[in-house]
């Protein structure tokens, strides 16, 4: 059996607890929605583009983001709803970039379809902005090589995997998920790091994402 590379620094697994808070802001039409999207905290943009993924851990994240859902079901603007639902979140490494894309898509649609600005939701159907508040906590797990890393991936909670894959890359704006960063910088395995980095985590359930990650890592363990 080949010797495993020992990491320069161990990978320390963290997990997160999430609370959802109301912002007190609400929109009744597309103009108001676009304006507020540009103003609300980044935690609100994150909430409304990741809520389904966070709440339905074992289901495939097929439904659109909250903005697309509200625009389609409440305002009846199916074309715009489809445009927003098709935004590829994985292409954005910052909340700022994602925010601008969403707001820009709505504004572009209003420019081409000015009559859409006159559609208002009833008071009880307004879009209420919420925000995601996360509390990051350490776990007792740390990995010094790929075998330990794969083993721990099978033990930690889904919330831990979610944090290191989704929140670290986009919400904390690290530019890459924590797993890829550690494998490249501490183990020097750029090929394996790139294989994980190129995954689109939004097309998996979180349990399937765990299995996929373990499979990739195990392939990289010397035999």
Q: Tell me the overall shape.
A: elongated
The largest pleated sheet is described as: 2 strands, antiparallel
Percentage of residues in strands: 15-25%
Indicate how many domains the architecture comprises. Answer: 2
How do you describe this structure in short?
With 223 residues, the chain is an alpha+beta fold.
Map the helices and strands.
Layout: E1 11-27, H1 30-37, H2 42-55, H3 66-73, H4 78-85, H5 95-112, E2 127-143, H6 146-153, H7 158-171, H8 178-185, H9 190-197, H10 206-219
Helix pairs in contact: 1-5, 3-4, 6-10, 8-9
Structure overview:
This protein folds into two domains: 11-16 and 132-219, no CATH class; 25-126, no CATH class. It is built from ten helices and two strands; from the N terminus they run E-H-H-H-H-H-E-H-H-H-H-H. By secondary structure, it is α+β, with helices and mostly antiparallel strands. It starts with 10 loop residues before the first strand and ends with a helix. The mean pLDDT is 91.
What keywords describe this structure?
single chain; 223 residues; alpha+beta; 2 domains; two-stranded antiparallel ribbon; 10 helices
């Amino acid at each position: 059996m080949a010797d495993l590379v020992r990491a320069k620094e161990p990978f320390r697994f963290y997990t997160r607890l999430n609370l959802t808070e109301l912002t007190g802001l609400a929109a009744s039409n597309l103009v108001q929605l676009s304006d507020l999207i540009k103003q609300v905290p980044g935690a609100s943009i994150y909430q409304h583009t990741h809520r389904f993924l966070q709440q339905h851990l074992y289901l495939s994240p097929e439904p659109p983001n909250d903005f697309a859902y509200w625009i389609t079901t409440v305002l009846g603007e199916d074309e715009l709803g489809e445009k927003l639902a098709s935004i590829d979140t994985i292409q954005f490494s910052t909340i700022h970039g994602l925010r601008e894309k969403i707001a820009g898509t709505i504004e572009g649609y209003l420019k081409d379809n000015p009559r859409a600005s006159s559609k208002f939701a009833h008071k009880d159907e307004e879009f209420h902005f919420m925000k995601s508040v996360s509390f990051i906590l350490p776990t007792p797990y740390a990995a010094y090589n790929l075998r330990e890393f794969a083993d721990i991936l099978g033990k930690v909670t889904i919330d831990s995997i979610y944090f290191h894959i989704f929140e670290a890359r986009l919400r904390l704006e690290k530019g890459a998920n924590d797993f890829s960063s550690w494998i490249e910088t501490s183990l020097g395995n750029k090929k394996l790091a790139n294989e994980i980095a190129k995954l689109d985590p939004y097309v998996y359930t979180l349990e399937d994402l765990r299995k996929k990650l373990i499979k990739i890592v195990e392939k990289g363990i010397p035999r």
